Amino acid sequence: MTRAVLSLGSNLGDRLGHLRRAVAHLRPAILALSGVYESPPWPPGEAGPPYLNAVVLVADPDVDARGWLARARDLERAAGRVRDPANRNAPRTLDVDVVAVVTEDGQPVVCQDPDLTLPHPRAHLRAFVLRPWCDVEPYAVLPGRGPVEELLRTAPVAGDLAKLRARPDLALEDG
User: Are the beta carbons of 10 and 18 closer than 8 angstroms?
Assistant: First the structure.
């Protein structure tokens, strides 16, 4: 059994619809689901529409870290995501990042290869990942970086946090 933190983001097309479909496909593995946040395009100063972001905590006895990456890529393909190797930060219909994975015995998975780096190498710099993660797991720790709540107070994350807007008017699930 592994437990994973997945970050969802969309800034093209039906942004909320893309996030909702990803959430629906992740059922019944979902343990917790954050609210929706809106953020400026990433990286700061990049042109493009704002993102809708959320974090999902998932667990599955049959999925390892590479399995979560495969699921993430499947969700992106289903949303029509086209990767542009020349522009990693291009606008996208759906972005699903595997932020962290923990084994059944509570050990963080550490992996560094071209396809999968865990924990995510830039998660500690992204308010749009850390803030929703704190919503669903207030005492979360990003392996190798520290408590998520403390990371939110570091520069430049604190500056980006001020630009993040909670969207309680947008629900990721019906009902």
Answer: yes
How far is residue 169's CA from residue 88's CA, in Å, rounded to a whole number? 30
3-state secondary structure of 71: helix
**Token reading at 126:** 């992204």
User: Tell me, what's the pLDDT at 156?
Assistant: 83
> Each residue of 68-104: pLDDT tens digit?
999 999 999 999 988 877 777 778 899 999 999 999 9
State the Cα–Cα distance between residues 55 and 127, nearest whole angstrom. 12
Least-confidence region, from 10-24, 37-51, 142-156: 37-51
**Residue 109 within a domain:** yes
Q: What is the number of other CB atoms lying within 10 angstroms of the CB of residue 39?
A: 22
> Which residue in this structure is represented by tokens 């999925």?
63
From 141, 65, 153, 144, select the one nearest 109 (Cα to Cα). 65
54, part of any domain: yes
Neighbour count for residue 123 (Cβ, 10 Å) = 22
Q: Which residues contact 139 (CB under 8 A, 6 or more apart)?
A: 147, 149
Contacts of 13 (CB under 8 A, 6+ apart): 80, 93
Q: Structural domain of residue 80, as residue ranges?
A: 2-166
